[in-house]
Amino acid sequence: MNAPAYIGRFAPTPSGYLHFGSLVAALASYLDARAVGGRWLLRMEDLDPPREAPGAQDAIISTLASYGLEWDGQLVRQSDRHAEYAALVKRLLQQGLAYACTCSRKQLEGYQGIYPGTCRDAGHATRNAAIRLRVPDLSYGFIDRVQGEYRQHLGREVGDFVIRRRDGLYAYQLAVVLDDAWQGVTDVVRGADLLDSTPRQLYLQELLGFAQPRYLHVPLIIQPDGHKLGKSYRSPPLPADRAAPLLVRALHALGQAVPAELAAARPKELLSWAVSHWDVGRIPRSRTLAETQLR
Ligand code: GLU
Ligand code: ZN
């Protein structure tokens, strides 16, 4: 069988509006797909309703449209996929690959976020408990198309991680792996803040017998004070009437050599230039990029 054609995706979390950093990630993912005639999907990662900003989903969708970033097929919402996540968690529990954890936040203080394994063999009931995936005492690594080799020892650096929270909400790590495989995603292009989630995702893929996608992590755009845009820092939504100049800025952030004549172009023209000139080799090989250093 031939290798599957390229399928990429943009998978925003509607905890806020799209900001310049998410535009850079969305644009890179779009260009990488379109440059090879691939499909580009949109998946709303709305797993955490309490943290969802009202109106954010609609705002994300309309921003993508006004910036000319058209996706293929139907938008998928993770909130429509709870039955699939539940079935997977159940199976992992039955196979002894996951277990219930009743540790309080307080009990986990002092472990720097690496779960000490307290409940591993406790046999707790799953009601009102978090569910954790057992990780092997092994290192998982991959070659990122921009960042190069990245590796983590799951046992020592990550620990057994949560796949379903105590409040019943499913974890990003679980949903992203299941959905990327279900949607046939061949190429994951996203911000470098997710580099350190990738080894956990590789382990899940291996466990579930899924093919491993290729990965490309673009630099995370940060504030002068080192903060990521959008999360701890409240970034304003991307204005619809500034699509063209902000796309140019995002192309600069991705190292693409936008010709001066395109400075006054419309989003559609800019994107079609960028698709035909997409050069992954020009993306800065750095995990972060300060917004203030951009033209
Ligand atoms: N939903 C994640 C985020 O917005 C991105 C997931 C991914 O691209 O794997 O940070
Ligand atoms: Zn525990």
TrEMBL record:
InterPro entries: Glu-Q_tRNA(Asp)_Synthase (IPR022380), Glu/Gln-tRNA-synth (IPR000924), Glu/Gln-tRNA-synth_Ib_cat-dom (IPR020058), GluQ/Sye (IPR049940), Rossmann-like_a/b/a_fold (IPR014729). Keywords: Aminoacyl-tRNA synthetase, ATP-binding, Ligase, Metal-binding, Nucleotide-binding, Protein biosynthesis, Zinc. Binds 1 zinc ion per subunit. L-glutamate binds at R9, F10, A11, P12, T13, E45, Y172, R190. ATP binds at K231. A motif ('KMSKS' region) lies at residues 228-232. It holds the Pfam family tRNA-synt_1c. It is an enzyme of class 6 (ligase). Coiled coil: none annotated. Its EC number is 6.1.1.-. Residues 9-231 form the Glutamyl/glutaminyl-tRNA synthetase class Ib catalytic domain. GO terms for biological process: glutamyl-tRNA aminoacylation; tRNA modification. GO terms for cellular component: cytosol. The keyword Ribosomal protein does not apply. Its cofactor is Zn(2+). Gene3D superfamilies: HUPs (3.40.50.620). One of its GO terms (molecular function) is glutamate-tRNA ligase activity. A motif ('HIGH' region) lies at residues 12-22. Zn(2+) binds at C101, C103, Y115, C119. Belongs to the class-I aminoacyl-tRNA synthetase family. GluQ subfamily. Catalyzes the tRNA-independent activation of glutamate in presence of ATP and the subsequent transfer of glutamate onto a tRNA(Asp). Glutamate is transferred on the 2-amino-5-(4,5-dihydroxy-2-cyclopenten-1-yl) moiety of the queuosine in the wobble position of the QUC anticodon. This is Glutamyl-Q tRNA(Asp) synthetase. It comes from Pseudomonas borbori.
